[in-house]
Predict the structure.
Amino acid sequence: MPNEFIQNSWDNMTDWDTVWHKQDEVRTAVNAVLGESIWDISYVSSRQAIEMELTVHLDEEAASHLCCQLPLPADYDGEGDRGTKFILYL
């Protein structure tokens, strides 16, 4: 039983190295498309995804274009106080 608990706990842990690596890849892609325009980028464990808010508000065409350039599957997630928001799935 204890070994099973340890294995299940390990399987549910977040691989932070992977998260940080993916955030870096996303930042590089956004910088290439828009220049430095990320206000916030963070991992949200409840969604098992990365949330990102930009410093600019994009129109629908520009948001769609950015989603196509990102290294992870991404969706438009609304408009925040600072700019357009996206959700990126790990």
